Structures are given as structure tokens and as C-alpha cells.
Amino acid sequence: MNVENYRGKKTVQKKLVLKKQIRNFINKVLIVIALFLTCLICLKSKPSFKNQLIHYVYEDNFEFTKLKSVYEKYFGKILSIDQLAPKEEAVFNEKLQYKKTNVYKDGVMLTVDEGYMIPTLESGIVVFMGEKEGYGTTVIVEQVDGIDVWYSNIQSNDIKMYDYLEKGSLIGEVKGDKLYMVFQKEGAYLNYKEYL
Which CATH class is domain 100-194? Predict the structure, then answer.
């Protein structure tokens, strides 16, 4: 095989790969449009469906991480930009460290160093940011395993609602030396000893 044939074969292979990527992207867009239109039809034709959907998303515990993992399982990533761009290295990647634990309300109070920088226990999505009575400023992360973890008495970092945080990512700093944590799944409070 000469050099020109080899180069020609490589060019054809690159074109085929590009065509396949474009076809996959178009298929994903069409599926999303079809699902969107189906939802619109259901919302218009059945008011009870709309009420059930609103109740499920806004009042029940909607698990965004499961939706993300199901989507990626069947459709892959939305765009494969992460393959084109170089991977970013995490600046902060720690494990939770504390001096002692005490039971506190529905969870646990951890004694940590003053101004301790809090890492996430597992990867997940931020589903709440705000004040919780008796806990102070709270960030709730819905982990990939479906458990909601409350990180309370903190000064929030640069995270926002619905940010996806990798395991060990920085959530914020503790106000003082007390970190309150609660573990919850489907409305039930869990024993913190199993998760720390």
C-alpha cells in the first residue's frame, strides 16, 4: 500500500466517523423533541396529568441524579465536548474530617476546625440552598445513590442550584467549628453512622 492510498483511507474513515457523530446528534435532538411534544400534548389534554407532574416535581423528592444517569446510559452525553477539551484538574479534592460527633435533631453535629472547608461525601446535584430552622445556612446535595445530604451552618462557596458536584468537591466553609449534617432518603431520616 502506498502513502496516497493510506492517506485516502484515513480521510474516508474520518468522514465516516464525523457522519456517525452528526447522525447520533440529530437522533438525540429528534428524540428530545418527540418527548417534549408528547409531554405538551399530555399537559393540554389531561389537567390531572399536569397536577400530578407538578406535585411530583415540586412537592415530592424528584431524583435528578437518576434522570441524569438514565439519560447517559441510553443516550450518552448530550455533546461530546468533554472529549475535545482537556480535562480540568480539581484544585480541591478532600475527604470529610472531624474531631467528634454528637446527635443533633435529625442528624449529627460534627466538631471540626474553625473555618473548615467542607467536601462533598459523594457526587450529586445541589437541590436546595437556603436557611433551615435550627441548622442555619444549608446546602442539600442529592447524591447519585439517591440520598439527600444536608450540609448546614456553612458559608456557601461559588456553587449554585442544580450544580453537579463531584465527590470531594468544595461546598463551602463552616461558620465557627460546628458542621450539622442530615441524611435523608424519600422523606425518611437515616442513621448518620452508616454514611460518615
Answer: mainly beta
